[in-house]
Amino acid sequence: MQINQWHYLHSEPEAKGIFKQQPDDFIVQEILGYAPLGEGEHIYLWVRKEGLNTAYLAEQIAKFAQLPLRAVTYAGRKDKHSVSEQWFGVHKPGKAEYDWTKLDVPGATVLKAIRHNKKLRTGVLKGNKFTILLRDVIETDALEKRIEQVNISGVPNYYGPQRFGDSRYDPKGSNLVLAEKMLEGEAIRNRNKRSMAISALRSWLFNEVVSERIAAGYFNQPLQGDVMSLAGNASYFVSEHIDESIKQRLADRDIYISGPLWGKGELASTGTALALEKSVISKHPKVSKTLADLGLEQERRPIVLYPSNLTWTWQQNNLRISFDLPSGTFATSILREILHIESIDTGNNE
Predict the structure, then answer these.
(1) Which reaction does it catalyse (predicted)?
(2) pLDDT of residue 174
(3) How far apart are CA 314 and CA 138, in angstroms?
(4) Is residue 7 part of a domain?
(5) Are residue 165 and residue 213 in the same domain, yes or no?
(6) What pLDDT score does 167 carry?
(7) Pick from 116, 142, 167: which residue ends a domain?
(8) Choice between 122 and 6, residue whose per-residue pLDDT is larger
(9) How far is residue 311's CA from residue 180's CA, in Å, rounded to a whole number?
(10) pLDDT at residue 169 in the model
(11) Inter-residue contact 137 to 16 (CB < 8 Å)
(12) Above 80 in pLDDT, residue 165?
């Protein structure tokens, strides 16, 4: 299974640059979307980490607080090869507090601790702010025009290479390699690796559908029977008729065309959109059957991704670019449409 075949929306870029030469070339800050109240049985920790994966740091916080691991939560995983500022939740009823300055984990600093009345749950994030330094950029006349084009038109909402791992560095551990073993009936006993393999398989099939839609010329063009996702939530509806109202809502980014996250049951799309989606899925019967047999439910995901608050500056031949994205989306999908990036790290390091 390959991940380099997916189509570009704005044609393949010409410019090149180096990505993640050092951790602070990739800065991620979570956007929680609500403010902790200052009281309650949950302690929210705002933590800066560098060179650490999220799950490991959660384990260290639990040990420091002398609590079971289940008492420590986080809203999302952040790349190990980055400087990340993210929230952790610690379930600690009562008035007892900790001196978080004594959390001795190299690469981690607790910037703030504040109580809240609700548990910090996975997926609760509104989004993430990315500040990225791309080094030794081989500039072309079209580069800044492409950035402006991405800002206006968005990019395919592909799952990024982090989701799939990188078999160049770990042939046995790549998530897609594990997924292929799963397709052949091999059991994956490690629970975390199995989960990552399933996620990679489902994400790969979604990317296939999006890519095929671009190739067919229907990425920005709504089709009869398309499933429209409402902006800001997981609700959707089937658009049986494409009228000016639908087109205007798409232009206003009030709704988005969606693609399938495969599972058991029937596709939600109908008509022309259903035919297009089925034509792609039918090319990968083993993948779709495996995902359905696992008991996953049919879900939907927008096929377009728009950055917000996008800015960029030049520092000699280095390009610093900053933007916000909704949770569950990938900064690399934005970068992919702008320039070819040479990544220094090893792929999936969450």
Answers:
(1) uridine(13) in tRNA = pseudouridine(13) in tRNA
(2) 84
(3) 12
(4) no
(5) yes
(6) 47
(7) 116
(8) 6
(9) 40
(10) 43
(11) yes
(12) no
pLDDT at 261 over 60: yes
Q: Are 108 and 182 in a shared domain?
A: no
CA–centroid distance for 317 within its chain: 28
What are the tens digits of pLDDT across the range 128-145? 999 999 999 987 778 999
Read off the pTM: 0.89
Q: Which two tokens stand for residue 198?
A: 């399933």
Q: Does 141 share its domain with 68? A: no
Same domain for 260 and 337, yes or no, is no
Alpha-helical (H) ranges within the chain are 54-65, 143-153, 161-164, 175-183, 191-215, 244-251, 271-281, 285-293, 331-338
pLDDT value, residue 166: 58
Helices (H), 216-261: 244-251
CA distances from 33 to 47, 263, 307 (A): 17, 30, 17
Instruction: Give DSSP secondary structure letters for 287-337.
Output: HHHHHHHTTPBPEEEESEE--EEEEEEEETTEEEEEEEEETT--HHHHHHH
Q: Which domain holds residue 217?
A: 155-305
User: Residue 181 and residue 69: Cα distance in Å, rounded?
Assistant: 30
The overall average pLDDT reported for the chain is 91
- 314 vs 231: CA distance, rounded Å: 33
Q: Residue 90: how many CB atoms within 10 A of its CB?
A: 23
pLDDT confidence tier of residue 284, bands split at 50, 70 and 90: very high
On whether residue 109 sits in a domain, the answer given is: yes
How many other C-beta atoms can be found within 10 angstroms of the C-beta atom of residue 330? 21
166, 295: one domain: yes
Q: How far, in Å, CA of 233 to CA of 123, rounded?
A: 12
Report d(CA 315, CA 60) in Å as an integer.
37
Quote the pLDDT of residue 344.
Answer: 56
In a domain, 1, yes or no: no
Q: Quick one: 177 and 285 in the same domain?
A: yes
- Domain with residue 287: its CATH number is 3.30.2340.10
Number of domains in the chain: 3
CA–CA separation, 195 vs 189, rounded Å? 10
Question: Does position 65 have pLDDT exceeding 50, yes or no?
Answer: yes
Catalytic machinery residues: 79
CB 46 within 8 A of CB 29: no
The answer to whether residues 49 and 84 belong to one domain is yes
258 and 163 in a single domain? The answer is yes
